[in-house]
Amino acid sequence: MIETKNHLHRYFFLFAIGFVAITLLELAFRQVAQLDSSPSPLLFPAMTIFLLVFHIMVAGFMLMKYFCDKKHLYLVAIACAFAGSAIMMLGTLNSFPAWFICHSTTVANYNDAIIFFTFRNMMMAMLFTTSIVLFHQQKWAARGAWFHTMVVSGIILFTLMMLLLAYLYSSFNPTLDISLVDNKTHAFTSLWNHFFSWLLIALWTMTLLLLLRITQLRSFFWFSGGFFCICYIFTMLFLLSDRNSDGLAWYQARFFETTSTLFIIFTLLYDIFNLYRDSQDKYLHSYQNSIRDPLTRLHNRSYFYDTLVRQLAEASPLKPVSIIVSDLDRFKRINDTYGHLQGDKVIQFVASVLQHVIRLDDVAARIGGEEFALLLNNTTAEDAQHVAERIRLTIAGHDATSSQQQLPESITLSLGVYTATSPELTAEACVERADKAMYQAKETGRNRVVVWKE
Predict the structure, then answer these.
(1) Could you tell me what percentage of the chain is helix, strand and coil, using 3-state DSSP and rounding each to the nearest 5?
(2) Given the residues 26, 257, 314, 370, the one annotated as active site
(3) 370 an active-site residue?
(4) Once rounded to an integer, what is the mean pLDDT over residues 357-385?
(5) What pTM, to 2 d.p., does this model score?
């Protein structure tokens, strides 16, 4: 029931957006048309060139997406729809033979233009329907390479057949003839008004209904596809409202075609942006996993040493680098008495204390089982000792109750501190000195801080 309501909401949103967009586009077109009631004959070829370029862009996007994941067979049908449409628009441009020399006196072949327009719409509607069916049956892609090749070949052959039919029925071929526009009067014939126009409306309507039924507008891509179908239905209706092929309706139809294609391009750009953002998120997530300890989410040993090497290169008396190495006292007894799961909780509790103590440019790392290290940038030995003492007191001051059962009993830390004031020593040597100071703290009674002294 909830899913059905979601479908209805998406359908309502699509038609509401379509109504608002078409109304605004209609008003915008009427405002522009009022500026000049007799547009230049070169305007239509110019709009066709823009639409041709946009369709090539969409076809290219679809092919690139298909080659990235060949399981999405439905993308081939959409790519062929837009690629075939772009090729047919070359025939439309050829119907205006003087557009490329900016000359407007040559009579245009409006019948050829409407023939290419008709076959282009039939081809696109049928290929859109094919893509929707392939999207619904995506499991077909798993049937093997032979089936994949058969489907792709069938789509390409159908596209080529429609291109050939458009060519044969145009004035390029004298054996076949169809009259949709009278080139002398520029009036649409009854064959267009009473058959082909309604056929195209029916094809786009069936495509839209199938799209709504199968995809249920679950993605923004299919939402743009639904808007595309609506625009083409209204394109047909606009042409029906005009009796002449050189009237404003012809320009209005091309204007709506261009707008709906732009909407699909913006959808594809949005899809590319989402893919880029997802890849960035995955990269950052992968990078963080590579430098973090999985149990505590502190930095790992490798990151700690890499950072220490960089900071030691700039170490000086004015910019000291301090290292604190700490180890849980009698941690083996915790594991033996309470179990390793409880031991992990103890380690996580200590890690959270260390994380809250350090500054943003410091590094807290887990470098061993129950051994931790802090890297304090621009921190003197005295200040590092104060930090270590604060950590020791904080850990020792907690028990099972104050730690919300993360600690089974009170625990303590032994800590060693070393401060480098020059880049002479290696990172390993600096950590070794802090480690020796930590072991000295253990040997002298545990639960204390010892600073390395030469």
Answers:
(1) 65, 10, 25
(2) 370
(3) yes
(4) 94
(5) 0.71
